[in-house]
Amino acid sequence: MNATTVPVQHAPLPTVRPAQAIEEPAWVRWSLIGIALAFLTFFLFVPLISVFYEALKKGLDVYFAAITEPDALSAIQLTLTAAAIAVPLNLIFGVAAAWAVAKFEFRGKNLLITFIDLPFSVSPVVSGLIYVLIFGLQGWLGPWLAEHDIKIIFAVPGIVLATIFVTVPFIARELIPLMQAQGTEEEEAAVVLGANGWQIFFRVTLPNIKWGLLYGTILCNARAMGEFGAVSVVSGHIRGSTNTLPLHVEILYNEYNFAAAFAVASLLALLALVTLALKSLVESKKHDDKENGNEYRGA
Questions:
Q1: What is the pLDDT of residue 198?
Q2: What does the pLDDT read at residue 1?
Q3: For residues 56 and 63, is the Cβ–Cβ distance under 8 A?
Q4: Under a CB-based contact definition with an 8 Å cutoff, are residues 51 and 266 in contact?
Q5: What CA–CA distances, in Å, run from 172 to 65, 93, 208, 215?
C-alpha cells in the first residue's frame, strides 16, 4: 500500500529580532540608569559644584585676588612649565615605543611593555621617593650633583622628572593597541612603492593614529597638571618657588584659607572640564571620520 505523504502544517513562529531577544525588562533598564545617575550625581557632580560654590561664595573680588596673588601665579606658571616639558617628551616616547612594540618583534618586548605600565602600578609617592634616592643630597648621585652645584630635588628639574614619570603610559598605552590592530600591511605597501621612513610615518601611520594620539595627549596633559603625590615628595613645598597648583591648594587649605584654596582648586576643576570637552570633541571627530569611511581601528 502506497502511503500518501501529508505535509505537516506548522504555525508560523514569531519573528524575534536579536535586539529584542536580549532586551531587558523596562524596570531593570530604568533601575540601572537611576543607580548610575544617582552615583554620578552624589560622587561627581555635587562635589564639583561645591568647589565652584565655595570658590565664589565670598565674591568675585576675593576669588580673583586669590588666583592672582604672587604665590598662586608662581604655582600656575610652574604647573604649566612642568606640563609643557613632560607632555612633548611623552609624546615622542609614546609614539616611538608604540611603533617599536606594534611593528617589530624583538627580545625584551614584553619587558618594555611592563616598564611602560610601571607608573600605573607604582604609587606616585614611591616614584617621588625613587628620585630622592637617586638625586637627593644623600642619594646615589647627590654628592656629585652638589659638587657641581646642580640641584634637582626640591627644585624645578625634580618636579619635571616626577611629572614625566607618572605620565609616561598615557600616550603609549593609547597607541599600542591601535597600531597593533592596524598591522603592517600599509607600511609594507608604502615601502614597496619607494617611500622612506619619514614619508611612511607622516603619510601612512600618522593619519591612522591621529585621534588616538590626540586623545592620549589630552589625558597626559590633564594628569601632568593635576599630579600631587610624586610632585609633593620632590618639591619641598617652597611657596612661590616649587609649589604647583595642587600643592598650593593643600597649603592654603591647611592654613584654613578656605576661600583661596577653593578658588585655586576651581582652576583645576576648570582644567578637568576643558579636558572632558576636548575628549568629547575628539570622539566626535573620530565618529565623523568613521562615518566618512576613514575607519578608526583603535580601542
A1: 84
A2: 43
A3: yes
A4: yes
A5: 40, 7, 15, 11
